[in-house]
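Course assignment 3, question 2. Fill in each field.
Student: A.L.
Task: Predict the tertiary structure for the chain below.
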Amino acid sequence: MDKDLEDALDRLLNSDCIEDQVNREIIRYWNERVHRDDVNANRIFRKLLHEFVFEDSNKNKPQ
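Answer field:
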């Protein structure tokens, strides 16, 4: 297990609200990858964000 994962697990175990902390850890993970110029992570993140935004907006359209 790497140090980043150990730190994330420690933060989760010490959190009052696990769901909120999990969301923070996901954001922290992506921000770190983007900051490191991880091309694959950047591509995946943009794809997931695009799907999330447009899938959500398509659900609200009247049929």
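Instructor remarks: Residues 17 and 23 are 10 Å apart (CA to CA). The first helix runs from residue 3 to 13.
Grade: pending
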